[in-house]
Amino acid sequence: MERSEDQGRRRRRQLRDARLYVCVTARRERGDLRDFLHTAYEGGVDIIQLRDKTLEAAAEIEAIQVLAEVAREHGKLFAVNDRADVALLTGADVFHVGQGDLTTRQARTVLGPDVVLGRSCHSPAQVDAALADPGLDYFCTGPVWETPTKPGRAAVGLELPRYAAEHAGTTPFFAIGGVDAARLPAVLGTGATRIVVVRAVTEARDVTAAARELRSALPA
After folding, report:
1. Does 51 belong to an annotated binding site?
2. pLDDT interval class at 153 (50, 70, 90)
3. Residue 102 marked in a binding site
């Protein structure tokens, strides 16, 4: 069995190499979660987060257990959003929080030092705070464009990932929000090298091909 500190090092090494991060619902209306996860990882997705606000805890845990199994099969990372208790129970590699969720200290109290921890940022001040927080492993900047997956959240435009690229140094960050293959060159033009996508992969007719197209356009 992998020791905890070795697990933490492996997860952070994989985070450094990660470029393509996908968020997905439990896909209950399609009933194809397991198949989707396999095809997404096969296309080159590095991290998959299950984010589904419609689920009760038991159903969320069940879906994340499927994600955990598939991620292990592919040797990739999987993420849990918001719920530290669910992250703990499912052995999540990555735990992601928003600005109004658990503090870094609170998350670490529940999950310990070996889980990769990320936070969403929507302004330069929040980026600065993330960079000053030694307990965070990465952050996201967005939404770059308005997106139905974040209703009511105003777009931040390309200036925020550009600011992050200028200030992040070696801290990984991901641009998120309305990113797809057509918009990816504009994102890369800011200096960002990592992206989070939802519909560009989850709604693709050929999931593996869509993921592969995005991954191949990102820096190695």
Report:
1. yes
2. confident
3. no
| 142 appears as a binding residue in the annotation | no
52 annotated ligand binder: yes
Average pLDDT, the chain: 96
Break the chain into its structural domains and give their ranges: 1-217
At the top level of CATH, which class does the domain 1-217 belong to? Answer: alpha beta
pLDDT at residue 4, as a whole number: 67
Interatomic CA distance for residues 199 and 177, integer angstroms? 10
72 is annotated as contributing to ligand binding: no
Hey, how many other C-beta atoms are within 10 angstroms of the C-beta on 130?
Answer: 23
Do 48 and 41 contact (CB within 8 A), yes or no? yes
Choose among 28, 74, 9: nearest CA to 48: 74
Distance CA 101, CA 99 (A): 6
Full-prediction pTM beyond 0.90?
yes
Element (H, E) at 208: helix 207-217
Question: What backbone phi and psi angles, to 5 degrees, belong to 55?
Answer: -90, 140
150 belongs to an annotated ligand binding site? yes
* Strand positions, DSSP E, the chain: 20-24, 47-50, 77-81, 94-97, 116-121, 138-141, 173-176, 195-197
How far apart CA 174 and CA 71 sit, in angstroms, is 20
Is residue 101 a known part of a binding site? yes
Segment 164-168 shows an average pLDDT of: 98
Give the residue carrying structure tokens 């070996």: 114
φ, ψ of residue 59 in degrees (nearest 5): -70, -35
Cα separations in angstroms, 77 against 8, 134, 138, 186: 12, 21, 14, 27
